Amino acid sequence: MTKQHDKQKPNNYYRLLTRNMLLTIIIVSVMPMILISGLILYQFENSYQEKVHAHLKELVLKHKQNIDTFLREKLDNIRFLGISFSFDELKDEDFLRDRLAGLQQVYGRVFVDLGVVNSEGIQVAYAGPFKLGRAVYSDASWFSTALQRDYFKSDVFLGLRGLPHFIIAVRENWKGEKWILRATIDFVAFNNLVENIRIGQTGFAFILNRKAEFQTKPLLELVPDREPYMGFLRDSRNFKDGVRIVEQDNSTGHKIIYVAAVLKHGDWLLVYQQKASDAFSDLGTTIRITLALILMGTICIVTTAFVLSRKMVARVAKADRENELMNDQIVETGKLASLGEMATGIAHEINNPVAIMVEEAGWIEDLMEEEEFQKGENLAEFERALKQIKTQGRRCKDITHKLLSFARKTDSRIQDVSVNALLEELIMLSEQRAKYSNVTIHAALQENLPTVRVSESELQQVFLNLINNALDAMEKIGGNLRISTQMEESHIIIGDHILIEVADDGPGIPTVNLAKIFDPFFTTKPVGKGTGLGLSICYGIIKKMGGNIEARSVIDGGTTFTVKLPLPKSEEGNA
Amino acid sequence: MSMANVLLVDDEVPFVEAMSRRLKKRDISIVTSFSGSEALDVLEKDRNVEVAILDVKMPGMDGIETLGEIRKRFPLVEVIMLTGHATVETGIEGMKLGAFDYLMKPCDMDVLMEKLKEAVAKKRRHEEKIIEARMKDITTRRA
User: Fold this and answer.
1) In what order do the strands lie in the sheet with A439-445?
2) Are residues A557 and A443 in the same domain?
3) A273 lies in some domain
4) Which residues in chain B touch residue A401, judged by CB atoms under 8 angstroms apart?
5) pLDDT given for residue A574 in this prediction
6) What's the angle, vertex CA A507, arms to CA A502 and CA A512, rounded to 5?
7) CB atoms within 10 A of CB B127
8) Is CATH 3.90.1150.10 correct for B4-142?
9) With contacts defined as CB-CB under 8 Å, which chain B residues touch A355?
10) How far apart are the C-alpha atoms of A418 and A413, rounded to whole Å?
């Protein structure tokens, strides 16, 4: 239960670690990207807007100048006509027709007709396509205005002919009488000036008079809301550079850019309008591309962060597991070490009483040799008992000595030891015994192994123990003992090492016992045969050397002991 | 004259008692002491002692220290070390300091007797040589 609980915890911990890492990577990477992109986009939008505004302003200003120039030019033509020729001359319709033909020859069909009107408002002469001779203008609104000024340009109106047009009128004096030379400007020609302003899909221009009536034909059918134009008309005097740019939402909910410029000294207004979305269509594209890039970047970052954090945490988890394993081993070693210390203490304490007991038994034995005892009926029994005491005393001695060697410092001089030579020697020593047990020893020793720096006698003790154990295991049935050595690369804890295996094909060790074989005093041999210290001594020695010893076993398949001995750190010295 | 004059030194009183009883029975005259310093005092008083049996592990002055002291002050006395556990180290150290031999505790009486005999023999041989040398010295002087 507790173990499961313990294992559950790290899982949560790693999940949390993964999540934190993921979030950190994403936030740290995505935030700057969004901030930078946003800032750049904002700056770009601003400057782009400014550029578009400037461009539109320029455009409108240029057309305003064009239109002004056009109007002035036409006016000047008429004024020139009025000054150059007298009322008498112009009264002659043929003469007037010649003048119109002349004008039309130079300026095209901009001038539709010419008329001479006397102070009563009666057109005394007319040249043009309409039959307007003797027309009476005394009630026309333009006539009264024109009479009061040197010259006059009218708004667009239908007039007598019933077609939209506007007129230019010049007032002259002849013999104290005022008369007016009137010219009609072709609406189509004038309209072209404005109609040519065409940008994008929704950009177009038109001209309004002070009553917000269209002076040219707006291209798009309708502009339902006059309000913005009225606004321009109201403060047209305050236009800076004669142009104003305003962006506002119209009644249909679209954002519209209005560019307005005054014409004819404030009588007319040139208005250009375009949907903002159309004007800034490039900006829209840029924003869409940027957003797509940010999205793609974010996806990349999230994917990378996900994979990366997974990998990192997997690595951390692996390191943790290894660490735990090492901790377990350290705990195990520590446990054995303290057990060893305790064993040493106990051995010392027990040794003296045992020695005394043995000596006292010896003393009784000595006394038994006296004659009086020799006659005793229980003599044989006494002798047997004393012999047993001595035997058991010796056994105690053996145990304490083995206990002491568990932690003692025998010949612990560290030297360069050739593992192969050591094993060959041991095999030779064990061969006789192996023969009796019907065991064959096979050695597979890798040649040219580097030496290890350990205590030779301790290493001898370890392998003698392992070989003896294997022979013990196969004592009754016989079998094969395989001893092999080989080089192995980098192990996480002990680095490059020599791997030695001692394998028998005896009866094997049950799993229950396998976990305990390195514990002191653990033995399966009958009482009096083994102390249960051999393997724990081996364990202590190998651990002290910085190596590792492990056992694996299959029931009826034999047992294999694996010993790993670390190589010295600097290999050049031992090559 | 007994087979040998032996001094037995060990802090374990019952051990000393049992041991001395057994050795006495084997015709060895024995004196005992229960610490290193006491052993030196005994040696000072009793010049007959030929062999000292020294326990290595004793409180106060330990076996190795006592051995060094004995070799210095009574060079002719042979010393047999008794160790609780046979370690090559203590053995070698003892031998280096001039011990005759070392034995593991508890030791076999026969082995101990054997060692004792050898030690006494060695000591007596030494003494004889010294006496011989002195006699030679005296005779040559007279001549």
Assistant:
1) A439-445, A479-488, A497-504, A558-566, A548-554
2) yes
3) no
4) 85-86, 104
5) 40
6) 90
7) 12
8) no
9) 12, 15, 105-107
10) 15
Tokens 């800076």 belong to which residue?
A: A240
* pLDDT beyond 70 at A575: no
Report chain A's terminal Cα–Cα distance, integer Å. Answer: 52
CATH code, A330: 1.10.287
Using a CB–CB cutoff of 8 Å, tell me whether A408 touches chain B: yes
Sequence-ordered list of residues with C-beta below 8 angstroms from that of A226, at least 6 positions apart, any chain: A212
Q: Given this model, what pLDDT does residue A572 score?
A: 42
Q: Are residues A475 and A386 in the same domain?
A: no
pLDDT digits (tens, 9 = 90+) for A246-286: 887 777 777 888 888 888 777 788 888 888 888 888 888 88
Question: What residues have CB less than 8 Å from B84, skipping those under 6 apart?
Answer: A347, A348, A351, A352, A404, B55, B56, B57, B105
Instruction: Give me the mean pLDDT over the A401-412 stretch.
Output: 58
The answer on A552 and A430 residing in a single domain is yes
Domain residue limits, chain B: 4-142
Is 0.80 surpassed by the pTM of this model? Answer: no
Q: Which two tokens stand for residue A522?
A: 């653990």
pLDDT per residue over A181-232, tens digit each? 888 888 787 887 777 777 777 888 888 877 777 777 776 655 556 666 777 7
Q: How many residues does chain A have?
A: 575
**B7 to chain A, closest Cα gap in Å:** 17
Pair (A450, A530) in one structural domain: yes
User: Do residues A423 and A566 share a domain?
Assistant: yes
How many distinct structural domains can be found in chain A?
Answer: 2
Residues A399, A414, single domain; the answer is no
**End of a domain among A349, A374, A408?**
A408
Tokens for A201, please give them. Answer: 């899909």
A421 and A395 share a domain? no
Those residues whose C-beta lies under 8 Å from the C-beta of residue B122, and which sit 6 or more positions away, are B78, B100
pLDDT for residue B138 is more than 80? yes
| Domain span including residue A454 | 409-574
- The confidence band for A410, taking pLDDT boundaries of 50, 70 and 90, is very low
Chain segment A58-103, per-residue pLDDT in tens: 888 888 888 888 888 888 888 888 888 888 888 888 888 888 888 8
Tell me if residue A569 falls in helix, strand or coil: coil
Residue A535 counted as domain residue: yes
Share of chain A above pLDDT 70, in %: 89
Nearest residue of B to residue A354 by CA position?
B106
- Contact with chain A for residue B45, Cβ under 8 A: no
Which residue among A361, A392, A408 closes a domain? A408
Q: Do B85 and A354 touch (CB under 8 A)?
A: no
Residues B43/B74, Cβ–Cβ less than 8 Å: yes
Average pLDDT, chain A: 81
ipTM of the complex in this document: 0.79
Which of A356, A366, A410 is opposite residue B25, by nearest beta carbon?
Answer: A366
Q: Nearest residue on chain B to A392, judged by CA atoms? A: B106
Whether residue A138 is contained in a domain is answered as no
- Quickly state the pLDDT bin for A382 (edges 50, 70, 90): confident
Residue type, A39: L
Model confidence pLDDT, tens digit, residues A77-88: 888 888 888 888
On whether any CB of chain B is under 8 Å from the CB of A390, the answer is no
**Residues in contact with B65: Cβ distance below 8 Å, sequence separation at least 6, in sequence order:** B36
In a domain, A329, yes or no: yes
pLDDT band at residue A488, thresholds of 50, 70 and 90? confident
Please list every residue in chain B whose beta carbon sits closer than 8 Å to the beta carbon of residue A411.
88
Contact B21 A363 (CB under 8 A): yes
> Do A423 and A544 share a structural domain?
yes
